Amino acid sequence: MSEQLLVLIGSPRKEGNSATLAGEAAEQARQLGSAVDTVFLHDLRITPCDGCGKCRRSIDAECVIEDDMTSLYPKLRGASAILIATPIYSYSSTAQTKLLLDRLYALGSSNGSALSGKRYGFIVVYGGSNPFDSGAATAMRCFHDTFARKASWMRMVHGSVSALGDAAKNVDLLVQARELGQDLISERE
Question: Could you tell me if 152 and 120 are in contact, meaning their C-beta atoms sit under 8 angstroms apart?
């Protein structure tokens, strides 16, 4: 089976720091033979979960909300690896990223999750000098807690970038992003 990497970018800026790093990871995966699908969450109309619970009847149940998540669910199901990238806004992931995470609820049930067995990568960038003071640690903990029981492999890349374009100048973060792209499509544990 060929590798499918789904890249979900939660920044409203397509040229932002998290998008830059996600692009590096995606390009590395592409160079190694993976199919890559990049989605900017800001371009989608994703409404909040209404908590009806109808999606939880089985792994194959569909969410009843008709919005752009309808087209994203098959991509999430079909991907062998998923990369989520977000800047930190107000001490947490962006609203676009949080909406995505909430709506992933529809892919699970008491019988398991359609997201189980996949490899996950997360890129988190923040303006402060410390991941705890900036809120990045809270966002990373949310990613960990959401995906740890489902993942076959999971890794996070994070770093401080203050201004637009700083990620492209941060050699260490660029290298980490490329390594993440490679690891997401490999069978390494």
Answer: no
